[in-house]
Amino acid sequence: xxTVRFEDVRxxxxxxxxxxxxxxxxxPAGRTVAIVGPSGAGKSTLSRLLFRFYEPQAGRITIDGxxxxxxxxxxxxxxxxxxxxxxxxxxxxxxxxxxxGRWDASEAEVREAARLAQIDRFIESLxxxxxxxxxxxxxxxxxxxxxxxxxxxxxxxxxxxxVLDEATSALDSFTERExxxxxxxxxxxxxxxxxxxxxxxxxxxxxxxxxxxxxxVERGDHPTLLTQG
Length: 229
Ligand code: ADP
Ligand code: ADP
What we know:
Elements: E1 4-14, E2 17-27, E3 32-36, H1 43-50, E4 58-63, E5 66-67, H2 73-79, E6 80-83, H3 94-99, H4 107-116, H5 143-157, E7 161-165, H6 173-187, E8 191-196, E9 207-212, E10 215-220, H7 222-228
Parallel strand pairs: 3-8, 3-9, 6-7, 7-8
Antiparallel strand pairs: 1-2, 1-4, 4-5, 9-10
Helix pairs in contact: 4-5, 5-6
Bound molecules: adenosine-5'-diphosphate (ADP) (2 copies).
The site of one adenosine-5'-diphosphate has 10 residues, from helix 1.
């Protein structure tokens, strides 16, 4: 389960300036589709529509054939896991941050998710800027480490659909490779929509869509798009 379809989706924040000008694609259940395109192309807007933060002005978005316009936003949030580019952490331990939304998870499950995301050494730590009542201070996590907290949270939540915001441009290449490996583990066998700036980061996608100025201007697999330049 978990096939996502965009059918001729049109959207504008402001009627004079269309952002999505008729976008159609399908992410078959369990597959990975990447949306690549320059800044401002409408990639984040696509994912906001999938969460129903906004409604399309035309066209529709379905999950397993059901129009999401008829699905409550909290159900969508339960069905779709998001690994954002910038993760904001709550004022509590990294372990709590991983458990967030899965309060029934056992300690062992939280540890296993943290281990898979390679963030287990920080599980008892607090994030930077926070302090316990007895004056213990938080730890400064790098962008990559924060993203791994979000990955661990997603592993624990185990949603059928994933949205990965892979614009990891702020990370060094070693961290980027590590994050990539963790993301590949989470997305295996799950319906996954990857949002990326660069073709080089989406080698494992089954299909890549190039979005530019609100339209899909190219689609294909990684080798095909690379040879086309
Ligand atoms: P991308 O993720 O590809 O960089 P976005 O979907 O964030 O693109 O943005 C697409 C366009 O929509 C941009 O021109 C951006 O300025 C505009 N935009 C994004 N969010 C809003 C908003 N809340 N209100 C008005 N315009 C917006
Ligand atoms: P991202 O999703 O990449 O983290 P944002 O969604 O905050 O970034 O914004 C994406 C782009 O949309 C940025 O260029 C931002 O300036 C623009 N944008 C965001 N909100 C608005 C808005 N309310 N009006 C106009 N442009 C906006």
